[in-house]
């Protein structure tokens, strides 16, 4: 092992601790690592900060802006209106309707925004009924966690690029995710989890919502019809480009969201301030830094070292089923006690390195880690949605396990089946 590899491993260890504990923001952690690479001589300045101009970073950052504009359209307001029309409904119809609206909102906005909207309605439910506020808040939080960014529209269109940024410097372009790959791997557990939540929501303890933790949700002003038409045209232009990526080429495809953002700014659908605040968000800095980290792991040989180490632990010639089970179980455990995005950023490079070392399908192993990073509903520490569900709903993690443990187990089993169906571990 060289001095350079030891330095990279030390910086990687720092990154792992920071990602999993979130003592400092993800983006700051990533930039600290980039600075450390320069100061220790691992790479020069231009290489250390090349992630800021990387095509994946540009695509994801600008696509987030386009997705945020889509979230301001009448789609959200119509969904809110649908919720209002559900007042007085009861039984399984109400449960299914709540889940359907949650799934739709989960493609247009982040977890906190989605659950804040759903909370406005569940607060009005009868505390004495089987569909009580605390019970349904937890149920919709599960649905939100299962479905967040799963469908490749809105926020879902950015997820494959985000995952790619975690390991793209270690592999060739053929091993990077296409826009529909995350959807293919995650659709079976999403469907299975939804059916379980429909049939078994009564297993969730029925408590009382803690109103002291409920914050008012401001109603955002709907876009004008002109702005809405422009937003939809930009969105369909970008999505059409993604679907024709083979014909257009990666450069054209990746720059289309940037072109879309410029159109939204020039037509005054979005202000420059709104666009810039999103383009410089913590998530974008994290993606830029993780892109450099994955490149350094590949160029210094540390990625191969990690891959071979994990492969030695798995044993010689492990079966594809065994590999998918190990990565699914380890990631699911981690993500329920630590941050789900931090867990994803940690496990995806390890998955890629292991797959390369063992001659496996890199996409398959990475997808197991990426999808299972969102099975973060069994503990309040897992994700923002879990924190809201446990905190506002006054739920005890151990008492609610009669619902969450079977759910997580079903999600894991269906993910392993789905990945091996669409992406065999060994091609």
Report on the architecture of this protein:
There is one protein chain. The protein has 427 residues and is mostly helical. It is 69% helix and 0% strand. It has 21 helices and no strands. The chain has helices spanning 3-21, 26-39, 45-48, 55-70, 74-85, 91-106, 111-122, 133-147, 159-167, 181-200, 225-243, 245-248, 250-266, 272-279, 282-300, 302-314, 320-337, 340-357, 362-372, 384-393, 401-422. The longest helix is centred in the last third of the chain and has 22 residues, at 401-422. The protein is globular and about 65 Å long. It starts with a helix and ends in a 5-residue tail after the last helix. The mean pLDDT is 85.
Primary descriptors:
globular, mainly alpha, 69% helix, 21 helices, 427 residues
Write the layout of secondary structure elements.
Blueprint: H1 3-21, H2 26-39, H3 45-48, H4 55-70, H5 74-85, H6 91-106, H7 111-122, H8 133-147, H9 159-167, H10 181-200, H11 225-243, H12 245-248, H13 250-266, H14 272-279, H15 282-300, H16 302-314, H17 320-337, H18 340-357, H19 362-372, H20 384-393, H21 401-422
Helix pairs in contact: 1-2, 1-15, 1-18, 2-15, 4-9, 4-11, 4-13, 4-14, 4-15, 5-6, 6-7, 6-8, 7-8, 8-10, 8-20, 9-15, 10-19, 10-21, 11-13, 16-18, 17-18, 17-19, 17-21, 18-19, 19-21
Oligomer: single chain
Helical content class: 55-70%
Please provide the ordered H/E string of secondary-structure elements: HHHHHHHHHHHHHHHHHHHHH
Please, how many helices?
A: 21
**What is the terminal-to-terminal distance?**
32 Å
The tally of strands reads: 0
What class would the helix/strand composition place it in?
mainly alpha
Uncertain parts:
none
Biggest pleated sheet:
none
Q: Please give the radius of gyration in angstroms.
A: 22 Å
Q: Please state the overall shape, judged from the principal axes of the Cα atoms.
A: globular
Mean pLDDT: 85
Content of β-strand: under 5%
């Amino acid at each position: 092992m060289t001095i350079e590899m030891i330095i990279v491993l030390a910086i990687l260890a720092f990154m792992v601790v920071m990602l999993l504990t979130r003592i400092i923001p993800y983006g700051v952690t990533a930039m600290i690592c980039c600075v450390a690479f320069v100061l220790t001589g691992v790479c020069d300045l231009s290489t250390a900060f090349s992630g800021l101009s990387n095509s994946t970073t540009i695509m994801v950052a600008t696509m987030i802006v386009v997705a945020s504009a889509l979230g301001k359209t009448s789609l959200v307001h119509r969904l809110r209106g649908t919720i209002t029309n559900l007042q007085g409904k009861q039984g399984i119809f109400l449960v299914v309707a709540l889940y359907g609206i949650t799934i739709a909102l989960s493609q247009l906005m982040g977890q906190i925004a989605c659950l804040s909207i759903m909370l406005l309605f569940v607060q009005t439910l009868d505390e004495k009924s089987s569909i009580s506020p605390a019970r349904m808040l937890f149920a919709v939080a599960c649905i939100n966690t299962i479905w967040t960014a799963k469908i490749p529209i809105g926020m879902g269109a950015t997820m494959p690029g985000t995952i790619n940024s975690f390991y793209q410097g270690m592999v060739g372009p053929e091993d990077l995710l296409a826009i529909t790959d995350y959807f293919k791997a995650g659709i079976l557990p999403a469907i299975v989890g939804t059916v379980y939540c429909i049939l078994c929501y009564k297993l969730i303890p029925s408590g009382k919502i803690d109103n002291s933790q409920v914050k008012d949700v401001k109603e955002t002003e709907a876009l004008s019809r002109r702005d809405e038409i422009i937003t939809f045209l930009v969105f369909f232009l970008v999505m059409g480009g993604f679907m024709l990526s083979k014909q257009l080429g990666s450069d054209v495809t990746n720059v289309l969201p940037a072109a879309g953002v410029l159109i939204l700014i020039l037509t005054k659908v979005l202000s420059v301030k709104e666009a810039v605040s999103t383009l410089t968000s913590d998530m974008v800095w994290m993606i830029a830094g993780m892109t450099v980290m994955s490149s350094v792991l590949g160029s210094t040989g540390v990625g191969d070292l990690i891959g071979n180490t994990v492969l030695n632990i798995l044993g010689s010639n492990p079966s594809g089923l065994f590999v998918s089970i190990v990565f699914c179980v380890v990631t699911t455990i981690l993500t329920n006690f630590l941050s789900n995005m931090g867990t994803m950023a940690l496990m995806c490079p390890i998955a890629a390195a292991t797959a390369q070392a063992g001659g496996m399908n890199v996409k398959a192993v990475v997808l197991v880690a990426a999808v299972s990073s969102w099975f973060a509903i069994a503990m309040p520490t897992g994700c923002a949605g879990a924190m809201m569900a446990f905190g506002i709903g006054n739920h005890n993690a151990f008492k609610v396990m009669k619902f969450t443990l079977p759910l997580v187990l079903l999600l894991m089993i269906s993910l392993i089946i789905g990945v091996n169906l669409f992406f065999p571990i060994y091609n």
